User: Fold this.
Amino acid sequence: MEPGTGALAVKIMTTLLVVLLALAFILFLTSLMRLRRVERDLVGLYNKLQPVHLPALLNLLNPEDLSFLRANLRKPDFVQVKRQRTRALIDYVRRIALNAKVLTSLGELYRYSPLPDVAAAGQLLVSRALMTRILALRTLLCLQIELVLPLFDTNLVSTIKAYEAARTRLEGISSTSLVLH
Assistant:
């Protein structure tokens, strides 16, 4: 084998690997673009909203309850209860993330209203729903960590406040008369 041949082979293989990864990524993005379609049916979108019982969610987040459980349960029992609570929180946050996606689609529809107030409210709904979705997805990641490491605590306050603001904005729009294309 000639000197330098091995280094050249490594460079060629690395380049080929990078090109293949780039092509795979482009194919992945194009498949996502095909799957994304804007739903134009208001009733269908409203029907996709999943219930989120905020008082029950806030009850799960009550720090006094968690302190009480930590003080009165053996550590293995506390860890088991904490994991059960975390699984319930994951369900709630998944619903919030899905609802935020639906609220974004609703806001997109409202943005194209010929009524300037409704269009502006739709734009605000889109931005609040997107922020809520980002926060919810970040919170889901933290909750997954908390599931593995039960003594890790996730702060959901910002996610819940963002979700409440987006839902309030939707209620304000839907009470307004709406004319869409």
